[in-house]
Amino acid sequence: MSGLAMPKPDAETMRRRDEIVAGLRAIVPGEGVVDAVNEMRAFESDGLTAYRQLPLVVVLPETVGQVSRILKFCNERNIRVVPRGSGTSLSGGALPLEDAVLLVMSRFNRILGIDYPNRVVVAQPGVTNLGISTAVEQEGFYYAPDPSSQIACSIGGNVAENSGGVHCLKYGLTANNVLGIEMVLMDGEVVRLGGRHLDSEGYDLLGVMTGSEGLLGVVTEVTVRILKKPETARALLIGFPSSEQGGQCVADIIGAGIIPGGMEMMDRPAIHAAEDFVHAGYPLECEALLIVELDGPGVEVDHLIGLVEQIAHKNGSTTCQISTSEAERLNFWAGRKAAFPAVGRISPDYYCMDGTIPRKQLPRVLAGMREMSEKYGLRVANVFHAGDGNLHPLILYDANVPGELDKAESFGADILRLCVEVGGVLTGEHGVGVEKRDLMPEMFNEIDLDQQMRVKCAFDPNHLLNPGKVFPQLRRCAELGRMHISGGKLPFPNIPRF
Amino acid sequence: MTTFMPFSQTDVLDAVKWALSEDAPLEIFGHGSRRGIGRPMQCEHALDLSGLSGVTLYEPEELVLSAKAGTPLIDIERLLAKHRQELAFEPMNCTRLFGGTPTQTDKTGTIGGALATNLSGPRRLRAGAVRDHVLGVNAVSGRGELFKSGGRVVKNVTGYDLSKLMAGSWGTLAVVTDITVKVLPAAETQTTLVIRGLTDELATAAMALALGSSAEVSAAAHLPYGVTQRVASDMRGDDAATLLRVEGFGPSVAYRVDTLKRLLENAGPLSEVGAQFSKPLWRDIRDCVPFADGTERPVWRVSMAPSEAHKMVLALRMETGADAYYDWQGGLVWLRMEAEPEAETLRRLIADFGGGHATLMRASPAWRAAVPVFEPQPAPLAALAARLKAEFDPKGILSPGRMVSGAPSAKVAATEEERSES
Predict the structure, then answer these.
(1) How many CA atoms lie within 13 Å of B242's alpha carbon, on the beta-carbon side?
(2) d(Cα A290, Cα A246) in Å, to the nearest integer?
């Protein structure tokens, strides 16, 4: 672990471990409590494998009542809790803490209801993202957000991270597709937000919960919107001699009023790595490769394919293939979908970043990355969700070379700083977790962060849920609550009044 | 009585700090077009944001627009229309419900008001609400702190989404000064397919069938017998009208309308409303024009599961007199009561039919003071909301009492004092 400061383990909790394990066993009988070191190994890290830590104990509840009692038990004893879904987070959101109970939700794996007239599915949080689509597939429906880990990641984890995917340009992120949740607060209270109806009767707590990275509550049930599958989908595979031209093509497509179902770009190193791996027939001589997928009724898709082809040509595309069959469309995607493992083949290790930028800044950011690549002496391959400006630079390094992980992390941090500098953000869909925690001040000043932490204080005033994540510095809620009004009066303001 | 008229973020900050130092609550509003909604407030002072106006950033090819909170929606919509774009959530214009004329263009609502009230129109069903399109805000909390949240890009999970928290908070958490929203291409054309003469139940089934098809219906409403003639359109007769809007590129719209016609050929007599009449028709549905009768008779906006709402309405009519029409595939019910709001009866029935929430959109101030305007929340949730309010506005100076009775409790305020003294 490279210099990541986590909250200091609480000695009292560590000392009382046996008692805590016994207390949890009284709540979750049988194999639901795991305390043997060799069995806990499976939980010591999530998708951000550079960081590992054994938890105090692992508990796998099966009912909402158990979750409620576990949290109440921990809250009363001042024990920290780290919630975990499938453990696919790329930002260390589910990284255990030495003195914290790891609350694993994987046994909540049932679909509770499918309601076609209202187009919703009610699922337990441990159901996989893909599991929801699979459950409604026979009726021609699907769940739109499709993070690349969809085969493994859980819907509860999607809520925690506000997961995206290649379709979110047109169909939105998790936040736009979740209608309701049931959750347990740190004090054990069970609350429901939303449901099969739209919008909130009060504050949009569902909006705040989505993407809160397990710091506000533990989700125990999720209601999502499902959509009818589009009649057809076709894709274009377009090569450009420069990333500028590729970027301009993306801008022009959107400027023409077209919102593709997916729009992905890859740079030269990523194209080559992918092609070497899956032999999808990608053109190797181009600097930028664009995959544009259009979905909807056949007549609309055909119409738009023609428009996109013209726009690509106008922007100097050197190749433009249009899928004529489902097999061909999937083949276009094969390289993109395998881009991460493909890059994994050409380097012992890679580090995946996740900044978002205003699209027009793409050439500037790519140029910046090239300079950084030289400075750090590390290669970088780029894949991005071009439609929404979400970059996934993959920094290639070798963890066995002393100092290379540190270098890769510094390189990554520099990329994210550049993203913020050009008007973008630190993370588009992977979350802050521990990975980008210490970069938060690049984007937010202390007052901004204080407001976010006040939300935390309303939900979990003792900072017991997933501490050490998201916020670079933990401040006591009492301290945040102070109002600074010297002498009860402030200078009389000079503003227009009537 | 002081009304602050800020022209900059700093002015807003100063006004809030003044209110803090004087312990003087402020009513926050823009054009005031939605001031008739919510509990009546007892604020001596007001913060009028209508001077905080202007679009500060618009990049059509990036699908992003930023504006100061007091910017008229009408200006934003005109600007977007020039670039064939729109606010996909179709913000409600509340002026007609409160006695405004169809041609009124002055003070018809601001972008800040749209965010604060989160009142979205027919396309909410497909495209999401205001809260789904806000990307970032700058705001001044009730602590007199200017903060930002979010940004200008669509994909952003950096920290808590406080921008969404501002949506539907009715000015009670912070004074939003600047808003960045996602904008989208406007459809090239639209057609509304009409089925006449359906009961509420059959209409609900027809709408569910249409929304469950691949025809990408962008709005679905049902106007029962007697309501049909109260919206602008070329439809004749009083018979119920079930309306399905299809938007997009010309050839696609024609194709999808045909798909729907085949799907619904046995549902009832079908006709089409072309783009020219379709637009004002959906505008009137959005703005609750059928109940814009110049009275103060109570009007409710109810959100439920689409399949259940008509059952609730039927049960309600067994107990009291109410006029109703439906949007959002049947899930949004607009109700005009004969006499009293009947809040308890209505809310009991909503709970009986699967839950949801009711907001009293129009009623005399006396009624709005007497019954909960917003759906009361279960105790743990209400407590959580109160804690959130206390975190952002510990002294209760921002539109106190607009959503729930009472400012943050005296107890909370006292605790704050203790904290600051300790």
Answers:
(1) 26
(2) 7
Per-residue confidence (pLDDT) for residue B106, from 0 to 100:
92
Task: Decide if B3-185 and B289-370 have a common fold.
Answer: no
Question: How do B134-141 and B241-248 pair as beta strands?
Answer: unpaired
A494 pLDDT band, cuts 50/70/90, is low
Query: Could you tell me which CATH class the domain B3-185 is placed in?
Result: alpha beta
Please state, rounded to an integer, the average pLDDT across all residues of chain A.
94
Q: Which two tokens stand for residue B202?
A: 């059959």
Contact assignment for A297 to B154 by CB distance below 8 Å: no
CA B144, CA A383: separation in Å to the nearest integer?
A: 42
How far from chain centre, in Å, is Cα A383?
16
Please report, rounded to a whole number, the percentage of residues in chain B having pLDDT higher than 70: 96
Average pLDDT, chain B: 94
pLDDT per position as a tens digit, B65-88: 999 999 999 999 999 999 999 999
Whether domain A347-431 has CATH 3.60.15.10: the reply is no
Do the Cβ atoms of B158 and A175 come within 8 Å?
no
Task: Give me the architecture of the A11-104 domain, per CATH.
Answer: 2-Layer Sandwich (3.30)
Question: Is the separation of the CB atoms in A295 and A419 below 8 Å?
Answer: no
Q: Where in chain A is the domain with CATH 3.30.70.2740?
A: 347-431
Of all residues in chain A, the one with the smallest CA distance to B206 is A117
B417 falls in which pLDDT band (50, 70, 90)?
Answer: very low
If we measure between CA atoms, which residue out of A429, A189, A385, A164 comes closest to residue A290? A385
Stated as kind and residue range, the H or E segment containing A38 is helix A37-40
Q: Decide if pLDDT at B409 tops 70.
A: no
Residue B368: both structure tokens together: 């709005």
| Run of H or E residues at B195 | strand B189-196
DSSP assignment letter at B398: B
**Residues making up chain B, counted from first to last:** 422
Q: Which residues of B touch A423 (CB under 8 A)?
A: 151-153
Rounded to whole angstroms, how far apart are CA atoms B411 and B413? Answer: 5
DSSP symbols for A264-307 = EEEEHHHHHHHHHHH-----SS-SEEEEEEEEESHHHHHHHHHH
Whole-prediction pTM: 0.95
- Which residues of chain A are in CATH 3.30.43.10 domains? 11-104
Where in chain A do CATH 3.30.70.3450 domains reside? 232-340
For domain B289-370, the CATH superfamily is Metallocarboxypeptidase-like (3.30.70.340)
CATH number of A232-340: 3.30.70.3450
Measured between CA atoms, the residue of chain A closest to residue B255 is: A299
What residue spans define the domains of chain B? 3-185, 189-286, 289-370
CATH assignment of A111-228? 3.30.465.10
Q: Which residues of chain A neighbour B305 with C-beta distances below 8 Å?
A: 115, 118, 195-197
CB A450 within 8 A of CB A480: yes
Longest dimension (CA), chain B: 73
On chain A, the residues whose CB falls within 8 A of the CB of B164 are 175, 204, 207-208
Q: What is B189-286's CATH topology?
A: Alpha-Beta Plaits (3.30.70)
Put simply, the answer to whether B158 touches A443 (Cβ < 8 Å) is yes
What ipTM was estimated for this complex? 0.95
Report chain A's terminal Cα–Cα distance, integer Å.
60
Task: Report which DSSP code applies to B395.
Answer: T
Terminal-residue alpha carbon distance, chain B: 35
What one-character-per-residue DSSP string does A447-490 give? Answer: HHHHHHHHHHHHH-TT--BSTTSS-SS---HHHHH----GGG--
Supply the pLDDT for residue A125: 98
**Rounded to an integer, what distance in angstroms lies between the CA atom of residue A82 and that of residue A63?**
18
